[in-house]
Specification:
The protein has a two-stranded parallel sheet. The chain contains 3 helices and 2 strands. It has a single domain, classed as 3-Layer(aba) Sandwich (Rossmann fold). Helix 2 links the parallel strand 1 and strand 2. The chain starts with a helix and ends with a helix. It is of the alpha+beta class.
Length: 84
């Protein structure tokens, strides 16, 4: 989360100075509901989702739109090979 926080701080200052902008974060369905125990990945994605909500409210007056895309599991040949 440290890198994400530092990015928010820097880009937020820039967007405020330039009259607004859009931020799209990448979360994950496992940030909303745990599925496979990954003690670092799932909490980090949950933090990104929560930060999205907080920043959307905080930055709205500055015409900065903040959203998060949280895809779920996608079955791919790579995933299939790893299950064997």
């Amino acid at each position: 989360m440290r890198g994400t926080y530092l990015w928010y701080r820097r880009v937020g200052q820039w967007m405020i100075a330039h009259g607004g902008g859009k931020v799209i974060n990448i979360g994950s369905a496992v940030g909303i509901r745990a599925q496979i125990p990954r003690p670092s990945y799932e909490p980090a994605k949950a933090a990104i989702i929560h930060n999205t909500v907080c920043l959307a409210v905080e930055w709205a007056p500055y015409k900065i739109n903040v959203n998060c895309i949280s895809p779920g599991f996608i079955e791919t040949p790579f995933q299939e090979r790893n299950r064997k």
